[in-house]
Amino acid sequence: MATKSISDGSFQQDVLQSSGLTLVDFWAEWCGPCRALGPKLEEISTELSEQVSISKINIDENPETPAKYQVRGIPTMILFKDGEMVDTLVGNQTKDAIIQTINKYL
Asked: Which residues are designated catalytic?
């Protein structure tokens, strides 16, 4: 399953009301590290499709959600479990570091 684009409008349903793990990537088109992170998230989304869903939210098009979760720099990934925020990763992390963080909550 590929990563899913979400918005301020769909965040409640796509993340907060979902069961299981959801990793939300806060990104922007102009952000180099965000673009570098994208392929890693696609790979993780495919490899761990049974364990976690990965969503991306463009902070330029959707300013409310990043403000609500105090996203100060991008890329920022926030991991939610059953709609509750459980962990945060900031910066262009390695694929292994992202998977380790996800595995802590499986």
From this structure: 31, 34
**Which residue from 89, 84, 80 is spatially nearest to 33, judged by alpha carbons?**
89
Mean pLDDT value across residues 33-62 = 97
Q: How far apart are CA 60 and CA 50, in angstroms?
A: 30
Element (H, E) at 19: none
Which pLDDT score is estimated for 1?
A: 59
Six-digit token pair at 19?
A: 């069961």
What per-residue confidence (pLDDT) applies to 2?
Answer: 84
Outline where 1-106 has alpha helix (H): 11, 32-47, 64-68, 95-103
Query: Residue 10 CA to chain centroid, in angstroms?
Result: 14
Can you tell me which residue has the tokens 């890329």?
75
